[in-house]
Design goal:
The chain is an alpha+beta fold. The protein has six helices and six strands; from the N terminus they run ααααββαβββαβ.
């Protein structure tokens, strides 16, 4: 009758247990990583819905702008072109991508130097730093939070940037979630200029410079899109489901 295991048998058992533990840890790690990515995807999707809602409200406000008549005259009486200009202007003010942009207004003057459209910076951005060491993506993250902040937000998804002391939405790894203004998703029609009235327009360079988009008027569909930083597998999660 055997009274004990031999040393070799014990080593075999330990080796088997080690393999099982490694497999279990690998599976657990994949499950945890998958859950974190899923949580980040859900956050990005929710933020995109808020951005879309704010953008829609902004476009409706732009169409009722007190500058619609001066803009219409500036656009040669073309209503579609004037609407496109107003939409780009108001969205540029509503969704600045940098602290410098947030503190700047939006102004267009005619050939005689008279003001056509003058939009002041929004009061909600008054506390952004005049200058900051924060990188552009972190600035866009802080500005996204300011632009769409809602008291019902899940504060577990909110962090504070050390360089600015401003809040930002964070993914499951603590990285900032930010946005890209005028992201081109490859569709043939720009929702802000569905008739293509900006393409080839003589005053287009002025609008491009003011709106911070050198491709306005190229017929591409542009959106304000929420995005994450790269996840562990290198993928970037986009608000429109790419």
């Amino acid at each position: 009758m055997r009274k004990a295991f031999t040393l070799i048998e014990l080593l075999i058992v330990v080796a088997i247990l080690g393999v099982l533990l490694a497999i279990t840890m690998a599976i657990s790690s994949r499950i945890i990583t998958g859950q974190k990515v899923a949580d980040t995807r859900q956050l990005v999707t929710v933020l995109q819905l808020k951005v879309d809602r704010r953008a829609t409200e902004t476009i409706e406000r732009a169409k009722k702008s007190p500058y619609r008549y001066s803009t219409l005259q500036y656009c040669g009486g073309d209503q579609d072109r004037a609407t496109a200009v107003l939409c780009y202007a108001y969205l540029r003010i509503e969704f600045p991508e940098s602290f410098a942009e947030a503190r700047q207004g939006f102004r267009i003057t005619d050939g005689s130097g008279s003001d056509v459209l003058v939009l002041a910076p929004l009061s909600r951005f008054v506390n952004v730093p005049v200058s900051s060491t924060a990188i552009p993506g972190d600035q866009a993250a802080a500005l996204l939070f300011i632009a769409i902040n809602d008291v019902s937000d899940d504060w577990r998804s909110v962090g504070v940037d050390d360089a600015t002391q401003l809040n930002f939405y964070k993914d499951s790894y603590g990285k900032p979630v930010f946005f890209v203004r005028w992201y081109e998703d490859g569709k043939p029609r720009d929702p802000l200029d569905p008739m293509g009235k900006l393409t080839g327009w003589a005053s287009l360079p002025v609008l491009q410079a003011q709106a911070g988009c050198t491709t306005i008027g190229d017929g591409m569909n542009k959106r304000i899109v929420v995005r994450s930083n790269p996840q562990p597998d290198g993928d970037i999660l986009w608000g429109f489901g790419k």
